[in-house]
Amino acid sequence: MNPQLTPELIQKADSFLDTDRQHQAAIRLGERMYDTFRSDKGGRVSSQIRNLQQIAVSATRFADIEDFVKNQMGRNAGAYKEWRQVGDEVLKQLEALRRAANDMTQDEGQRLLLRLHLARGWVRAVVGAYLYVKAQREMEPSHA
Question: How many domains does the chain have?
C-alpha cells in the first residue's frame, strides 16, 4: 500500500506555504540565490538551482534535501563556495518546514510525507522567485 497525505493535511500545508511570512521568506531567498548563483553561461538557469529543485522533487526523505545543502556547502571549489553564502538560510527555512510538519500532525508516517510536500512547495516558490529575477534582469535595456 502506498501511503498518502490526508486532504486535511495537504490543505494545512498549502495554507502554511501561502502565509505572507512563509511565502515572502521563500521569495527573498530565491532573489538572494539569483544574486549568488546568477545564470550559467549562455543565460541558462544555474545548475545549482536545478540541482536543488531536482533533489526536492526526487527525495524520498526530507533529510536528503538538508544533506544535499550541507554537502554543497562543504565542497571547496567553484559554485560550491557560493553555497556558503546562502546555505544557512536554506537550512533555516527547511527547519521551519520540519517544525511546521511536526506541529500539524502527530502521526510519524504523515509527518514524513508532509515534510516532503512542504519542501516541494517551498522549492517551487524559491525557484519561481529566482526565475522571475532572472527574467527581469534579462529584460533590462542594458542587458539587450
Answer: 1
DSSP per-residue codes, the chain: ------HHHHHHHHHHHHSHHHHHHHHHHHHHHHHHH-B-GGGPBPHHHHHHHHHHHH-SSHHHHHHHHHHHHH--STHHHHHHHHHHHHHHHHHHHHHHHHHH-S-HHHHHHHHHHHHHHHHHHHHHHHHHHHHHHHHSGGG-
| Residue 1 domain-assigned (yes or no) | no
Q: In which band, very low, low, confident or very high, does the pLDDT at 38 lie, cut at 50, 70 and 90? A: confident
All three cell numbers of 89, joined, read 538560510
At 40-67, the pLDDT tens digits run 667 789 999 999 999 999 999 999 999 9
How far apart CA 94 and CA 137 sit, in angstroms, is 28
Q: Is residue 2 part of a domain?
A: no
Say which residue, 3 or 125, is predicted with more confidence. 125
Which pTM was predicted?
A: 0.91
Query: Cα(75)–Cα(68) distance, rounded to whole angstroms?
Result: 11
